[in-house]
Amino acid sequence: MDITTRTDPPASRNRLLTLAAGPGGLICAFRFGGGLPLRLNWPDILGGSPAGPGQFTWMHLKTADSRIHEWLEHARDIPEAARRFLAGRDDRPRLHISDDGVYGLLVDLKMEADGQDEEKGVLHFFLDGTRLITVRTRALRSTDRLRRLIEEGTDYGCTLDLLAGLLQCLHEGFLEKLEALTDEVDDIEASVLSDRQQADRSALSAVRRQLAEFRRHINPERNILGRLCTLGHDWADSDARDRVAQVIDALHGLAGTIDALYERAKLLQEEIASQMAEQMNRNLMVLSVLTALLMPGTLLSGIFGMNMADVPGLQAPGAFWWVLSLMGLLGLGMLLLLRKLKLF
């Protein structure tokens, strides 16, 4: 999950500053453009520590701390609409582009989600030529992956290039989840082909629910992100736009994988339903044959079971065994008739 401290390798320890005491809502902050990424502390952010030519920052925040909301409210160098958006509670993918920068919302996977909690999380972001600000409520996979890459020394050329790196991490997180779901569907398919479908229906329903949720958010997300390739701002260089375009192409492929896996899960559910219907038909056939075999005997026993004085054979010795034999012969005759009619 997102953390604020780590043990740095000796090569980079001198270049990464320990995050000083600040609000719990500050997860991490880095400055780029001077060699290895430099970790910033809260006083650097409050003091508006100036960045040199070609330098920019990434600030990753969480909304649980009221001091983060207060800082956003008074950060006059961020457009008012962007400040309201970063502190808001929108949960659908969107992108707004203006002369002052870009802000929007990405749907991502949470770091941890139990069976009672949905896996989807949201990330608000603001982007201009000197900074990328990301705000989240729950720990997300993409930002955690990006933070670890930066701590390992990965550098980025501009803020749009950094956002492309974030989108790449988002794509990799969804890809890992889809690979896990694909393995689950493979196991279910093997079980279905082995005619062991009792637990498969509920498992497939869970898979289809997750895939439907991914498809509902990935499709609009990749469509709106395509607008980043047309940014005309000075800080959006062509190499960064090309990298964004590559990531968006990967998201298009991800959407195709989701659709294919969803259809595969749907077909497996239909196969399970077909197997269950076939098994039910076999059971009904067996019950029908048994009913047909027992029907003559049931009729005969009902007739001789009438409580009347003139029932034939009532006083005759051995009459019970004669009637029982007659019932057996009628059942055998009914069986031969069913076989002749190819009903059994």
UniProtKB/TrEMBL annotation:
Keywords, sorted A to Z: Cell inner membrane, Cell membrane, Ion transport, Membrane, Transmembrane, Transmembrane helix, Transport, Zinc
Membrane-spanning intervals of the chain: 284-307, 319-338
Top-level taxon of the source organism: Bacteria
Keyword Cell membrane: yes
Record's GO cellular component terms: plasma membrane
UniProt subcellular location: Cell membrane
Bilayer topology annotation: Multi-pass membrane protein
Family: Belongs to the CorA metal ion transporter (MIT) (TC 1.A.35) family.
Entry protein name: Magnesium transporter CorA
Record organism: Bordetella genomosp. 11
Taxonomic lineage: Bacteria, Pseudomonadati, Pseudomonadota, Betaproteobacteria, Burkholderiales
